[in-house]
Every structure is written in structure tokens, then in C-alpha cells.
Specification:
homodimer, 521 residues, alpha/beta
């Protein structure tokens, strides 16, 4: 009757298995890593992809975008665009198609530590953060407070320590940085000092980016070294949906492109509010907007690296509020990943936003199904995948650690089921049934595969109810809090030499105190 | 900078949208329902499916199963099987292939209320419960206590009220029923009185099932009426992996098949413990075992309805304990769904088990990614999808309500993105940008689609942080508790006439007091 209940304890091979588990897993044998080939989930058919593509070209050719800045109009018209009588910048089909054909593809996203370099093309998938939350969430009390620069640095450090989070785009706005230039410069500084992984961030005005280039060149060693391995990309909200250019963002974008910085071309309409309520229509508008950005970038500098950043968000149409945790969200982002893949461009989408304000079961399932589906679509870069709540209004440190588990499990599903003569295991079954102990616990195949075939959680709990009660009946939030405290008190990437940091601090108004950047702070 | 943050409030059309939302949604316009066509997630290629198939046939032909009971040997050898010198029952390839060709397909799983009938074939997908948990979990305190008959009845009532849970298989063992016959009979009674949806349960001994047939015939009106619309299926653990028949379960199965009851042929090995650690090998063994069951059922009664119930579970190989919430679990179940689909048989797999002991964020993400991937595989019946914790050792009422949300979102992803001339929305985009208000909130398309394109949560929270704090900073567990109390005090299916219930209570030892079965209990 009770065969469905688990086997809690078994004899045979347990001591050997536990001994193996005590040793760290060598990199090559790890069950999952960034850059696994994905794409086994495909919500759109090839015909549907082509229909979305043609509709997007129609939108660009016949509706175009308004509010282009003069420098944008200049380069895009030189490339083959034109301005219509209403002042809208129009993108003829041939221009867009030529751009797609010639755009940069197969470019590495570098990290300060080359071990974390990413190759986000084809169907290779990486997970990272993003966001511009204005609050930090206390995982235990649910309190929302203003986010600070130190939070940003600490979030970067946590991400640096997460096995399954492969890049760090800034998650919060440091609200203690009152002046926009201080905000931009310190955001960039705190992010790149907090992690050796690839960083993404954004700038309000082009001057702020110019200042940051000094910092980036100093850390790289020279401008040439930076241009060879740019380890920071720009999250550019160059468009305000529907189909309107954002003036300041475009100015910043131009400086970034010329400075050799990869650009995440981000169109973030909300279906039913700033883009159509029909999911297919939301896709069409996002694709059109990002294609316009792609033309713009390539008109500034042919072949400049750009990420196809279609981020169609969902509205709860009862209130107009955003719903980043919905199932519709998973569909939209997966469909966008297919569009970027169709163009053979590096695609950046989102998954793992939660509507829930706190890391409760709701946040869990919202993140779980979004991670799983978007991760298994042909997405290259999955943003917003860790730490976000309240549809991006809040960030939570414990959630970074919790979400790392959901992403790790998702990566395992992306890896899939290897089917080989060995893995089919007919001889292992024969041995166990005909000549063996009637189980597989001590079988050589089991011992060999226990590290490489299975992902084990860090804070996820697999104890039996009895053991769990004996160990204090902890929720995952409590375990994540302990892990956060351990990491924040011990994990300091500390990868930039003091003399370089001195130089940066001499020239720029860095407001993150040095004493926060070492143990005992 | 802050474009990634949500739009919290918008003018335009809000009053109209809220008025529409106040009206109930007619069934035909509901955004999701049971039986949506699925299959956009396919972890195995066609070649890999065929390799698993051939390996399973090898296992059946050359290893076979041990411990077959005489009546099983009799019917299977009469059909073409044979017993090898070691006493193992062997299934030649031709016998298995013939069985697959002739087995029942396209049979309805009936419900007491025909509105809940299921047509689980092709790629149509339904979600339901299952399990044999021995504990009930208090969602707030985390306390584990023995499960009771009344819990079972209450769980059935909750499932009856859930929009996205389409059938009820018994989730717990009523531990207050000490005698096996009382347990079996009262389990069946409590389940079928608690819900008008299709019910699954199981029996320890054939006599218990014979007694229950009296009850089922009485409720159906006659034996003929029962056989025409059998509304209860048998969850049969006819095999103890690896490849050993379970004597009592086989005896019960034979009575069920002859009594016209659909059989869920359940093989539930644990990878690395009772089946191979290699995921592909775990698939092979499960498929072989269930194919053996299929031969057995068809040898008893050709064309008898049987569900291809491959339930390969995952072990945490560090301890041997089951891990139902892992990513590996989602892969295995999705692969099994593909195997049943390959055979064009009704497939029953699991998704939504959690290792977490309580409905916390861990339970959420474990259920979320399992629902999403298994739901989008070509699974027909997804068992264990609501309410289960501690890898099936515990059941939780609040979790039924919480998991209903995750399943609802998953159903929306299964429905997919409709791509039509209208939904591509080029004209809606043109109108909004060139002639309209520059947004889509009041657009006729938005008003038309807000009910049919989007799923809205019942207990999932989409308030802004400010509203959420004003409303008491509740977690989803607190909201689910309130909803549970509301439903348990008000929702009594009450679909069996008192005189029929009287008749059942005269003949069988029913221990669920009548006063528990009406409001005010």
C-alpha cells in the first residue's frame, strides 16, 4: 500500500557514498554549469516565429518610432532609414534585414576573472540578476526599506559566491546616492568590486558613463585592454514602449557603443498597458523595438556587440500593475528567446521575478516555473533570475541564495537525459536482478554517477520529517539567512589591487567605504 | 533608469475593467481548463525514445520479472509468455508489441459529475492528487501529526473546489483506521463522498475491493451503470522494483480488472536505490515494468482500461532518501510522459512533490518547476500535483490551495501563445501609436482579452508593497489558511442521496460520522 512513500534508510554502500560526498567536486565533473545547451521547450512553431517576425517588420516599416534624437536620426537615415511627415523614424524592411544579417554574433561576455567568461550564443544558457528595485526586503519580517549602496555591494558579493548565477546585473538603485552622477558611478563601482563575474549596469547621462570608463580602463590596465575584454555591459532602456525613443538613454547608448561596451537593448513593454494585451502582439512590439535598437547600434558602429533584450512584461489587467511571476510571463519570455534564436543573435530575457513580496511559497512557485520554462527555451542570458520580489520593486539577499537552488535544478533539466548504451543500464538491471542484491545502492554505476548525474542543494532541505524536527524545523528562509551571514562576513572578492582602487578613488567620488570591503566590517 | 519597475496605477479604462472582473467568467471563456493540448517540452528525441523502448523490451525478454502469482503466470503464459528455469516470468518481444498494439486507448475517466469527466489521451493534460502520506502537516507551525479519515474527506472536499485540480487520488493513509479492511473501505468512501471528480484509490486485499464494489454499484445505481461509467480507478503497485511482482497487489488488480475498474499500473522505482542511478536506465526499468503490467492486464481481459503509470522517483544518493522535488525528478517524469505518448497510451506521471516539509519557498520552487516541465511534456495525467510535502510523507491542506495556483499558471503555459492575424496586433499598435492615447489600457482588444487571455490567482498576491503592508503583510500560507477555513466550513459536495448512503452504511462499516459531512461540523 505504502510503496509511494520514500525509502528513508538503506544499507549497502552508504559509508562509501558519504565519503565521496565529503570531497569537493572537480570543475569538469560538476553536474551542471553555465552555458549548457538548451532549447527543449519551444512555445512557438517555426511558422509562428516567422509570422511574429514579419509583423515586427511591418511595424517598423509602417509605424516606426517617435522621439529619435538628432544623432540617431543622422546615423539611421544614413544607413537607409527615413523620417516620415509626422517626424517618426521609419525602418524599411531591407535595412532591418541587412542589419540582422551583419549584426555581431558569437561575442564573448567577459568577466574580470576569465573563468567566468560567458559564450552566450546558439542555445547556450546562462543565468544572472538584474533590476532597479528601490527597496530591500527583510526575508523574515517582510519589512521593506530603501535600498543602499552597501546593499548593492553585498548583493554583488553574494552573486559572486553562487554556483548557478553566472553574471551580476545591478539589482537595486542605491537610494542613499542622492545625485544622479554619484548614483551611476557608485553603482558601477560597487558592482565590479563585489564580483569577478560579468557585470551589467546603466547610466542616466553620458557624462557619468565617461567617468566610469576611466574606472574600467584603470581596472583593465588600459583602454586597449578594456576594449579587448569589456567586462561590463550596459542595460539600455533606449525605448519607452510603445515605439518611442528615450532621449537620455540614447545619448548614453551612443557613448557606450563607441567605448566598446556591449549593449543590452532593452524593450520592456507591459502587455495590456504599454504593449498589446494579446501575447502575440506583445511579442511583435518588443521584437520591433529591439530590432530598431539593433539598427541604431549598427548604424553607430557596424558589428558593435548588442544583446537582443526583449523583456515583455505582464500586467494584471484588473489593476494595471505588473505581474512578473505569472505563467503568461514565462510564455512571453520563452517566445522572445525563440525570436532571438531565430535571428541567431544573443538573446537576453527574464525569468524568476515574483509578485510575492517575500520569499514564501508563492515566490517559490512563481520563480520555479519561470526558471524552468524560460531556462529550457533557447534563451542565452536569463536576467532577473535571483533575488527579486514584488514584480521588481524589492530585492532580497536570502532570495539570491534560495533562487540559486531553483536555478541549479533548472540547469539540471537543461542538461537533459543522456541516452547511451551505458546509461540505458540493461546490464546493471540484469546484474541487480539476477546476480546482485536486488537493489542499486552499492552498484559501481551508482557510486560513479552520484556526483556527476545529480545536483545537490545547498540550503534546500531533504531531511525526513523526523530529522527535520530534530534539527529545529527550519524553513529555507532561516537556512538562507544563516548562509547569507556566513558569506557576507567571509566572501570578499578583493580582486582589484589597492593602488588601482586608490587611483579610482582619487579621480571619482567613491562613497563605498573601504572598511566595508573587508572582513570584520 | 527605473523603467524596469512596474507601472502601479494607470488611468483609462480601469473602471470598465474592474466592472468586467466583477462578473463570473462563463465556462467557455475561461482562460484554462483540464484537457488542454500539451507537449511543447520534449526532453527526449525520437531516437532516444526508441532506444529506451528497445532496451525495455530487452529487459522484459531476457530478464523478466520474479514472484508472479500462479494466476498471473497462467494468463501471461497463455498469452505467449513463459517461465524461465529460475522461475522468472519472461515477456517475449512479440507479446509486448502485440499488447501495445491492442491495449485500450482513448477511454474516458469518468466522474460522478459528468462535467468532470476526463479524456486523457493524445496530448491532453489533467492534474490531480495522489499519495499515501502518513502525516498531516500544519502549514503554520510545521507540526507533523498522524493523518486521519476526516483529513482524507476534507482533502477530497478541497480538491473538489479547486479550479485547476481535475481529479482526486487519495493523498493520505487514514491512520485512525486500524484494521486494513476498515482502512480500505473507509478510504474509498471518504474520497467518493468528498468529491464529484474522478477518484483514485487502492486496496490491500481483494476482499476489500469486493466490498467496495457494492458501494460503487449502489452509488452508480447498478453494476451495469458502474461498468458504463466507472468513476473510481485503482492505483496498483503491482510491482516492487526492480522487476518483482507484488503478490497481494496482483490479486487486487485481477479483481479490479474483472470489475471494470481502470487500473493505474504503477512502477515506482527510486533511481540509484531500486532502479539504476543513470536517468536513462531508470526510465528503461520503469517502462519495462509497466509494460509487463500492461501485458498482465490485457491477458486477464483484452482491452481493459489501464494507465501507463511510470513513476520513477529520485534518490538523494548521499542518504538514499527520496527526493521528489528535484530537477532530475522533472526530467524523469517528462521522459516517461513521452514514452506513454510514443505508445499512444494514457500516461500517468507525477509532478509537484516537494522535499520541503512545509509550504515555504523551497516547496514553492520544487513544485513550480516540476509542474511546469511535466505539465508541458505530453503527460496525460499528472498525479501528486497538489498538497504533498517531505517527498510524499506529509500532506497539507493549505498546500492544496497554494499548489492550485502553480498548476493554474502551468495550464496557461500549456495553452501557449495563439498567433493569428488579430493577435499579432499590428493594427492595435498602429492605433495606439498614431491615433490613440499612446497606451493600450482602454483599447477594445485589452477589454476583450482580459478575461480570456490571463489567469488570475485566488490566493496569490499581486499587491504593491505599500498595499500589501496596509493589508497586513500576509504570506500565501496565511491567505491559504483563510481560504481553507472558508471552504471546509461551506463546501460539501453532498451528491449522494441519503437513502443510498443509508444502504452503504447498513452493509459496510463506515466510520466517517454523518455529522462531519454537513455544515456546522
Amino acid at each position: 500500500m505504502n510503496v509511494e512513500a520514500p525509502i528513508e534508510r538503506r544499507r549497502g554502500g552508504r559509508a562509501a557514498r558519504q565519503a565521496m560526498r565529503a570531497a569537493p567536486i572537480p570543475d569538469a565533473k560538476r553536474p551542471v554549469r553555465g552555458g549548457l545547451e538548451s532549447g527543449r521547450y519551444q512555445p512557438l512553431t517555426q511558422t509562428e516565429i516567422e509570422k511574429v517576425h514579419h509583423a515586427a517588420l511591418d511595424v517598423l516599416e509602417t509605424i516606426g518610432l517617435c522621439d529619435a534624437i538628432p544623432s540617431c536620426i543622422e546615423v539611421v537615415t544614413a544607413a537607409g532609414g527615413h523620417v516620415d511627415p509626422n517626424g517618426r523614424l521609419m525602418f524599411p524592411r531591407a535595412l532591418v534585414e541587412d542589419t540582422i544579417a551583419k549584426a555581431a554574433r558569437g561575442f564573448t561576455l567577459h568577466a574580470q576573472d576569465p573563468r567566468h567568461d560567458m559564450e552566450p550564443w546558439g542555445t547556450k544558457t546562462y543565468f544572472g540578476t538584474a533590476g532597479a528595485a528601490v527597496h530591500m526586503v527583510d526575508a523574515v519580517t517582510g519589512e521593506y526599506r530603501d535600498s543602499t549602496l552597501r546593499d548593492l555591494y553585498d548583493l554583488a558579493r553574494l552573486v559572486d559566491a553562487m554556483d548557478h548565477v553566472h553574471f551580476f546585473q545591478r539589482m537595486i538603485v542605491p537610494r542613499d546616492m542622492v545625485e544622479p552622477d554619484a548614483m551611476d558611478i557608485n553603482t558601477c563601482y560597487a558592482a565590479i568590486m563585489g564580483t569577478k563575474k560579468h557585470v551589467g549596469t546603466s547610466w542616466v547621462l553620458p557624462e557619468h558613463l565617461e567617468s566610469c570608463f576611466e574606472m574600467l580602463h584603470a581596472i583593465a590596465g588600459s583602454e586597449e585592454a578594456w576594449r579587448e575584454r569589456p567586462f561590463v555591459s550596459m542595460s539600455s532602456c533606449f525605448v519607452v514602449p510603445p515605439l518611442k525613443f528615450a532621449e537620455d538613454a540614447c545619448k548614453v547608448l551612443e557613448v557606450g557603443v563607441r567605448g566598446g561596451m556591449p549593449i543590452l537593448l532593452l524593450a520592456a513593454g507591459q502587455a495590456g498597458a504599454t504593449s498589446p494585451a494579446a501575447l502575440a502582439g506583445a511579442l511583435v512590439q518588443e521584437v520591433a523595438e529591439v530590432l530598431a535598437g539593433l539598427v541604431y547600434v549598427n548604424a553607430i558602429k557596424p558589428g558593435a556587440p548588442a544583446i537582443f533584450g526583449t523583456w515583455p512584461f505582464v500586467s494584471d489587467l484588473r489593476t494595471g500593475a505588473m505581474s512578473g511571476g505569472s505563467g503568461e510571463q514565462a510564455l512571453l519570455m520563452s517566445g522572445c528567446a525563440q525570436m532571438a534564436h531565430y535571428y541567431d543573435l544573443t538573446g537576453g530575457v527574464c525569468a524568476g521575478m515574483a509578485d510575492s513580496k517575500i520569499p514564501d511559497a508563492q515566490a517559490g512557485y512563481e520563480k520555479g516555473y519561470n526558471h524552468a520554462l524560460v531556462g529550457n527555451s533557447p534563451a542565452n542570458l536569463v536576467y532577473e533570475s535571483a533575488g527579486m520580489h514584488a514584480s521588481l520593486l524589492g530585492a532580497c539577499m536570502e532570495s539570491v541564495i534560495i533562487d540559486n537552488e531553483s536555478i541549479g535544478a533548472t540547469l539540471r533539466t537543461i542538461r537533459g537525459i543522456e541516452v547511451t548504451e551505458d546509461s540505458l543500464s540493461v546490464e546493471a538491471i540484469r546484474a541487480a536482478c539476477l546476480h546482485g542484491p536486488g537493489h542499486f545502492l552499492g552498484h559501481p554505476q551508482t557510486l560513479e554517477l552520484m556526483e556527476s548525474e545529480y545536483v545537490y542543494p545547498v540550503v534546500g532541505d531533504r531531511d525526513s520529517p523526523k530529522e527535520w524536527v530534530e534539527r529545529g524545523s527550519t524553513s529555507i528562509v532561516q537556512k538562507a539567512r544563516a548562509e547569507k551571514e556566513r558569506l557576507l562576513s567571509s566572501h570578499f572578492p578583493d580582486h582589484v589591487a589597492t593602488e588601482i582602487d586608490d587611483r579610482i578613488r582619487e579621480r571619482l567620488d567613491i562613497q563605498l567605504p573601504r572598511e566595508h570591503m573587508r572582513p570584520g566590517n
